[in-house]
Hints:
109 residues; Lipocalin; 1 helix; mainly beta
Amino acid sequence: MTHASQDALPVGPEEVSGLWALHASDRPDDTECRVALQRTPQGDGFGVYLEGCEKTAIARVAGWRIVDGLVALTDAGGEPVLRFRRTGLNRMEAETGGVTYRLEPAAMM
C-alpha cells in the first residue's frame, strides 16, 4: 500500500481559509493565538484576522498568499513572515529559528 506524497496536498484559498489556532514548540502552553485566513482579496494575497497573537512570531502579519505551494503569512509590505506547508488535511507547519509553528483548526468561540 503506497501513501500519497505530502506534497500532493492541494494548497489554495478554498483548502486553507478558515479559523486556525497557532501552536509554537517553544511555548506549548500558549494556545490563545487564533488566525483567520480569509478569502477576501487584499493586494497580492488575502486578508487575515489575528486574535491573541500579540506576543507571537506572527504579530506583524497583515495578510497571506500562496507562494510555491506554501501558505505564506505576510507583513504589511507583502514579505513572508512564516511559510507553512500542509502536513495533513487539517494541519500546517512552519519552522524558523529552531521553533516549529503549527496551525490546526481552532475551536469556534
